[in-house]
Design goal:
heterodimer; A: 308 residues; mainly alpha; MetI-like fold; 74% helix; flat; B: 267 residues; alpha/beta; Rossmann fold; 4-stranded antiparallel sheet
């Protein structure tokens, strides 16, 4: 808000006017930058919702959310989302089973136990892990992890959700561990000292004081990891299979929502057909899923807000 | 500068037995020496105040008593602190965790854990592996009573400790330090983050506590040291300048440095 000059003969007035205008221009620029991300989001939602609305004019919402078969490309098309949803949820669950324990353990170790030298090696190493392109992870799952698992479980199909999910878990460990570590590093030292002063060991201090103090940041790490797993595309497309199958058994193959979208958008379906619109309905489902998750995460974070 | 009188052992002709005795203690942060040949005897069940200007080493000295310095690399110390004339707290053969179970500490800012009021107090017992409910209940109640907090929180034991006011939180931290029945409790400027009312409350509490426990407190408020300590040590630039009964130190300081500090011209 601009302040009005009370004295008309203010000698600095001129320069202050100029200052005021630059301030405003910069403020506007910053506002535009902030709005650009919102505009992008609105644009995405507009397309997703628009195309989905056309889809739902021909397919009932009820069939979509209760149907157990997804065969839009068959002669007798069925549009139940559950087979895709089950694939997405199962691979995500497997990924979290890997990423949360390992990510948390790495974070606790590196924040509370590792000497500075070890931390300096561990951090770039994890960043490297995060920087591996997901297509590489995908083929790692398909060509290394699955054959290895098949030596123990000979009946395991070549495409399966367990190896895709596990490798996806590896891929999101760095995300979970680095955000959790930041949260634990933000816990003030006075709390650690308070714990040590009571005769607590390092492990007791880490688990009973530091971890609960950082719980809200750690929760956001888990939520972000989950969102990433839900939306991860390449690894599951390559290694989990492309056949929509209603199963929660990770040892089977099944397509995820993202894998289906890739598969259809790579084909030569003409725009505007119902088959083409299915990918928008599927995409909208994914966005809603992530949105709900983020809201839950936000509420949890508020509930466990850090108050040192 | 500091006179050589500080080098000699400052023994007290008191009627009180000695709880802890510091002998020729030197302390280094990396290369810089922060404590220089400290010799000091802490009387049993009395309040001993460490005072001096910022950077004089009083907090460093306090933190030697529970081996807090072991938590950080590059801290070196040499010398002895004898507890009950027997155990050298600073000996490398003594486990710092054992030391901290016997010597409690209250910090500058209230630092309750993100747990309930009850669990905050029970923490020191839990880390010792004590889980028997009736035992915990009894000790938590006794500690909260000693910290003059029981009546305010007895119906709020399950609430998060953060819901308490600042002064209550600090008394909670005192209860936490008392629950293990320590020999000695260290206070590091415990009222510097509190308002005058809460400060008065805590000072009154300390006066009561000295019947059951030895208190060593760092303060840079001269008035506070004069108000409730029994003995006072004046430190300057890493050396112990003078150690006396508080009344005597304030009435007739021996060392010219103490005189100028008390009159406000140093520090």
């Amino acid at each position: 808000m601009a302040l009005r000059d009370s004295t008309p003969l203010n000698p600095w007035r001129r320069s202050r006017d100029r200052q005021r205008w630059t301030e405003r221009a910069i403020e506007l620029l910053l506002l535009l930058a902030a709005l650009s991300s919102i505009a992008t989001l609105l644009g995405i939602l507009y397309v997703l919702v628009g195309e989905s609305l056309q889809f739902f004019q021909q397919v009932s919402l009820w069939e979509f959310i209760t149907g157990t078969r997804w065969t839009p490309l068959f002669g007798d098309p069925k549009y139940g989302i559950w087979p895709l949803l089950s694939g997405t949820l199962t691979t995500t669950f497997v990924a979290l089973l890997i990423a949360i324990p390992f990510g948390t353990a790495i974070a606790i170790y590196s924040s509370e136990f590792a000497p500075a030298t070890v931390r300096e090696i561990l951090k770039p190493l994890l960043e490297l892990l995060a920087g591996v392109p997901s297509v590489v992870y995908g083929y790692f799952a398909l060509l290394v992890v699955t054959p290895l698992l098949q030596q123990v479980l000979p009946w395991l199909p070549g495409f399966n959700m367990i190896s895709a999910g596990a490798v996806m878990g590896l891929a999101i460990i760095p995300l979970v561990s680095s955000i959790s570590e930041d949260a634990m590093q933000a816990v003030p030292n006075t709390l650690r000292e308070g714990s040590y002063a009571m005769g607590a060991t390092k492990l007791q201090t880490a688990l009973k004081v530091v971890f609960p103090s950082a719980i809200s940041g750690i929760m956001s790490a888990y939520i972000l990891g989950t969102s990433r797993a839900l939306g991860e595309t390449m690894i599951v497309t390559i290694a989990a299979g492309l056949q929509p199958t209603l199963t929660f058994n990770p040892f089977e193959q099944a397509a995820t929502i993202t894998a289906y979208i890739v598969q259809v958008s790579m084909g030569d379906l003409p725009h505007g057909t119902l088959q083409y619109q299915t990918i928008f309905a599927a995409g909208l489902t994914l966005v809603l899923l992530t949105l709900v998750l983020n809201i839950i995460g936000h509420l949890l974070t508020k509930r466990y807000r850090e108050r040192y | 500068m500091v006179t050589s009188s500080s080098q000699t052992m400052q023994r007290l002709d008191s009627q009180f037995p000695i709880k802890a005795e510091v002998r020729s203690l030197d302390f280094y942060y990396g290369q810089s020496q922060v404590l220089n040949d400290i010799n000091l005897a802490i009387p049993d069940r009395q309040i001993t105040a460490l005072m001096g200007p910022s950077g004089c080493g009083k907090t460093t000295l306090l933190r030697c008593f529970n081996r807090m310095h072991d938590l950080y690399p590059n801290n070196r110390y040499r010398g002895e602190i004898l507890l009950d004339q027997r155990h050298n707290i600073l000996s490398p053969t003594i486990d710092p965790i054992e030391v901290r179970m016997r010597i409690g500490m209250v910090f500058q800012k209230p630092n309750p854990f993100p747990k309930s009021v009850y669990e905050n107090v029970a923490y020191g017992l839990r880390v010792q592996g004590r889980t028997q409910r009736s035992d915990l209940d009894e000790k938590v109640e006794a500690a909260l009573k000693s910290a003059a907090l029981w009546h305010e929180v007895k119906d709020r034991l399950k609430e998060p400790a953060f819901n308490l006011s600042g002064g209550q939180q600090q008394r909670l931290c005192i209860a936490r330090a008392l629950v293990t029945n320590p020999d000695l409790v260290l206070f590091d400027e415990p009222t510097s983050a509190l308002d005058p009312m809460s400060t008065a409350h805590i000072e009154e509490l300390m006066r009561q506590l000295k019947a059951q426990v030895t208190i060593l407190i760092v303060t840079h408020s001269l008035q506070q040291a004069a108000r409730f300590s029994d003995y006072a040590a004046f430190m300057y630039l890493g050396k112990l300048v003078e150690f006396q009964k508080t009344t005597k130190l304030f009435a007739e300081p021996q060392d010219p440095l103490t005189q100028s500090y008390l009159s406000g011209s140093v520090g």
